[in-house]
Automatic annotation (TrEMBL):
SMART domains: PBPb, PBPe. GO terms for molecular function: ligand-gated monoatomic ion channel activity. Keywords: Signal, Transport. PROSITE patterns: PROKAR_LIPOPROTEIN. Belongs to the bacterial solute-binding protein 3 family. InterPro entries: Bact_solute-bind_prot3, Iontro_rcpt_C, Solute-binding_3/MltF_N. It holds the Pfam family SBP_bac_3. The keyword Glycoprotein does not apply. Residues 42-263 form the Ionotropic glutamate receptor C-terminal domain. This is Glutamate ABC transporter substrate-binding protein. The keyword rRNA-binding does not apply.
Length: 274
């Protein structure tokens, strides 16, 4: 009888725990991200902190700056109104999707190319920027094009699709992958690799800050950047796509393109105007 009593108490405790869990908040997949953002008057954006011209934390004032930062603020105003708040959370190529899936951020705006592989895991808005992959080399480098990287070392970033793209053109290239672009650039400067690869707009930011290095050759891929969001959020996706069209239509988009890329040597900003 005593054993039965303890067993009954265990069952009752288990049932109570299940009931309490059932009465808690909705699972992340069932939450309405757009409604939550409206209720909080805030959209939480995952952005880069080490990518000059796109997303960078300025060491002088600690503020996030760049094209994607300004775009996120503009889109937030379109969705939530003029008093809407854009909150920024620093992400890397490796951490951005896990942070989104865990509910730490509402959306990713961090130089992320729309790919079929990523679309299996998350959803995307329409493209808000069309980049192309290229390589960064030291002045005087014998590497003139991506095919020259065969039997040489290419540096990339973990979580990016850039290295795999290079391997299509230079299958014999050796690969060195690091956690972020800052580490990758240090590796290039210290001679650990022959070239650094990622999207041309990111490399342009590096070239601006590092005399003696240049973007080499034409872009060899097309990289449409999209805003990453969790799946099953059709209202949020619609709101983002609508906002992107609006900032393009009212001239905000082209103004921001000129602001951030109008004076970058070797980068023709007119090719990305909309």
């Amino acid at each position: 009888m005593k054993k039965f009593k303890y067993f009954s108490m265990f069952v009752m405790s288990l049932l109570l725990a299940l009931i309490l869990v059932g009465c808690g908040s909705k699972p992340l997949s069932k939450q309405d991200v757009l409604q939550n953002a409206k209720d909080a008057n805030t959209i939480s954006w995952g952005v880069k902190a080490d990518t000059k011209l796109m997303g960078l934390i300025d060491v002088k004032d600690g503020q996030e700056k760049g094209f994607e930062i300004d775009m996120a603020r503009a889109l937030t105003k379109k969705i939530l109104g003029k008093n809407g708040n854009a909150k920024f959370v620093t992400v890397t190529s490796q951490s951005r999707i896990p942070l989104l899936k865990n509910g730490n951020i509402d959306a990713i705006m961090a130089t992320m190319t729309i790919t079929p592989e990523r679309q299996k895991v998350i959803d995307f808005s329409n493209s808000y920027f069309d980049a192309g992959q290229s390589i960064l080399v030291k002045d005087g480098s014998p590497v003139k094009r991506v095919q020259d990287l065969n039997n040489r070392t290419i540096i990339g970033v973990v979580g990016s699709n850039s290295v795999e793209n290079v391997k299509k053109y230079a299958p014999k290239a050796r690969v060195l992958q690091l956690q972020d672009y800052a580490q990758a650039l240090v590796a290039l400067k210290s001679g650990q690799g022959d070239a650094l690869t990622t999207d041309n707009v990111i490399l342009a930011g590096m070239a601006v800050e590092n005399p003696g290095y240049r973007v080499q050759g034409k872009a060899f891929t097309t990289e449409p950047y999209g805003i990453g969001i969790n799946k099953d959020q059709p209202e949020f996706k619609h709101a983002l796509n609508k906002a992107i069209k609006e900032v393009e239509a009212d001239g905000t988009y082209n103004r921001l393109i000129k602001k951030w890329f109008g004076n970058v040597p070797g980068f023709n900003y007119r090719e990305v105007l909309r």
